[in-house]
């Protein structure tokens, strides 16, 4: 295969970044904007030895699962990789992806996976689900301020105030900010020169409480004419918190180190199930509350708590899973590396009247082994135990030292919540070689229209 070759390809899979995958005489091509089932004409743009990248030129036969995108910018924007594939097909693809990784990377048999895998949990309404959005500001060719999202793999802003994944109030807020910038000549930040004031708008929305937060990230200490902007923003139903975060560094990190409340309070509240959470501009909080409740409900169901258990929740964030589990356990210990998140976790425990949850700041890879070793020294002849261990690690999965300590503590159950089924498969392979067996696995679609999916696995100690 050579660069500039024109080929006809049938798409039979989707890649990690949402590209369609097809083969021509055994040679694999990755083609953006093609979906499973399409027959397409494509132009080879880059040819490696055994695979290449091609540009979609023409859809010869559309897939029966191809649908019209809800958003006109779906192809340009990097946020929705598979919006042109029917939602049923997206769920089928994600389920197959989890199963394929467990089989290929984990080495688990098809027979076992057929027995333990439960159907993926999708959404009734797979749009408008994000309770958080961060909009960068820029300037168009006419010199007007614009906001929207970055085009895929670039920092070029696609001007769009109406994202199909975000909540409707986002548009109202952004149009007020843009009108304010135009009227008072507040410039957008320019990454190349480091000049300009307005960098990003962070918007959060409480799905249960309907509370709204706006935090403006600015390349300055103060926002000029901020009072006039506040006057307009407070007219929006549910407006609860308006703040600024000063970020004067030349960096890709969006938020500054802290924030200053300009109006209202420094947080909004929301619920997952019957647990209340306070969410600040700097809080980590799952972006899809509808599916998060299903995800954590599934973790709680798999834990099967009776009330006597000691539970460790590793990578606990602001205590979302910990507080869910504390309703049914005797004691819950949460571990998280971000001090701000642990402050939030302790506060969330307090506002819910939960007294059986304790939180530690530190790397799970350090805290759990240190606790285990110290317990053994302080209690000769005994070892630290846990009835249930829950892990919800970042995309890279768990470090082997942590998996080793988990096995040494010998919990009856391990609940593994994963945002990457490839690293999940690798870690389950280790745990199953060390005496555990998979009992249940289920996907939860936290991110419709993207290729990402969450997954929960239940492992039990072999007797």
What does this molecule look like?
This protein is of the alpha/beta class and 463 residues long. Helices cover 26% and strands 31% of the residues. It contains ten helices and 22 strands. Strand 1 (6-14) and strand 2 form a beta hairpin. The longest helix has 18 residues, at 87-104.
Determine the fraction of residues in helical runs and give it as a percent range. Answer: 25-40%
Shape: globular
% residues in beta strands: 25-35%
Rg to the nearest angstrom? Answer: 24 Å
| Distinct helical segment count | 10
**Model regions low in confidence, pLDDT < 50 over at least 5 residues:** none
Short synopsis of the structure:
By secondary structure, the chain is α/β, with parallel strands linked by helices. The chain has helices spanning 87-104, 110-116, 169-184, 226-233, 289-303, 320-326, 339-351, 364-378, 400-409, 421-433; strands at 6-14, 20-24, 27-31, 39-47, 51-61, 117-121, 132-139, 145-150, 157-159, 198-205, 212-218, 239-246, 260-264, 268-272, 275-279, 310-314, 331-336, 357-361, 388-391, 413-418, 436-444, 454-461. Strand 2 (20-24) and strand 3 form a beta hairpin.
Summary tags:
22 strands; 463 residues; 8-stranded mixed beta sheet; 7-stranded mixed beta sheet; 10 helices; alpha/beta
């Amino acid at each position: 295969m050579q660069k500039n070759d024109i080929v006809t390809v049938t798409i039979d899979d989707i890649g990690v970044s949402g590209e369609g995958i097809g083969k021509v005489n055994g040679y694999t091509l990755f083609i953006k904007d093609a979906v499973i089932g399409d027959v397409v004409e494509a132009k080879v743009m880059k040819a490696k030895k055994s695979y290449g990248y091609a540009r979609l030129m023409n859809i010869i036969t559309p897939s029966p699962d191809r649908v019209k995108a809800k958003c006109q910018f779906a192809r340009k924007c990097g946020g929705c990789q598979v919006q042109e594939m029917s939602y049923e097909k997206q769920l089928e693809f994600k389920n197959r992806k989890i199963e394929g990784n467990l089989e290929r990377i984990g080495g688990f048999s098809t027979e076992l996976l057929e027995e333990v895998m439960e159907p993926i949990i999708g959404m009734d309404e797979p749009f408008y689900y994000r309770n958080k959005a961060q909009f960068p500001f820029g300037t168009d060719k006419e010199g007007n301020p614009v906001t929207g999202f970055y085009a895929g793999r670039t920092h070029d802003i696609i001007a769009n105030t109406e994202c199909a994944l975000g909540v409707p109030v986002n548009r109202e807020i952004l149009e007020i900010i843009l009108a304010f910038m135009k009227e008072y000549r507040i410039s957008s930040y320019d990454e190349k020169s480091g000049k300009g004031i307005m960098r990003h708008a962070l918007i959060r929305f409480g799905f249960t409480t309907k509370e709204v937060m706006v935090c403006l990230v600015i390349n300055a200490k103060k926002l000029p004419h901020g009072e006039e902007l506040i006057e307009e923003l407070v007219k929006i139903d549910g407006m609860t918190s308006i703040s600024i975060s000063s970020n004067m560094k030349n960096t890709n990190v969006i938020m500054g180190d802290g924030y200053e409340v300009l109006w209202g309070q420094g947080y909004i509240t929301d619920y997952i199930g019957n647990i209340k959470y306070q969410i600040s501009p700097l809080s980590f909080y799952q972006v899809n509350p509808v599916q998060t409740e299903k995800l954590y409900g599934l973790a709680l169901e798999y834990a099967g708590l009776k009330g006597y258990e000691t539970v460790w929740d590793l990578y606990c964030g602001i205590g979302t899973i910990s507080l869910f589990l504390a309703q049914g356990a005797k004691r819950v210990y949460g571990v998280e590396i971000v001090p701000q998140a642990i402050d939030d976790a302790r506060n969330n425990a307090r506002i819910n009247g939960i007294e059986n949850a304790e939180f530690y700041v530190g790397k799970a890879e350090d805290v759990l082994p240190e606790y285990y070793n110290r317990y053994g020294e302080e209690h000769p002849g005994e070892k630290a135990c846990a009835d249930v261990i829950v892990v919800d690690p970042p995309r890279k999965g768990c470090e082997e030292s942590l998996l080793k300590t988990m096995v040494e503590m010998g919990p009856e159950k391990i609940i593994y919540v994963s945002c990457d089924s490839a690293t999940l498969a690798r870690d389950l392979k280790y745990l199953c070689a060390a005496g555990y067996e998979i009992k249940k696995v289920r996907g939860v679609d936290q991110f419709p229209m993207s290729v990402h999916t969450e997954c929960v696995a239940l492992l039990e100690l072999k007797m």
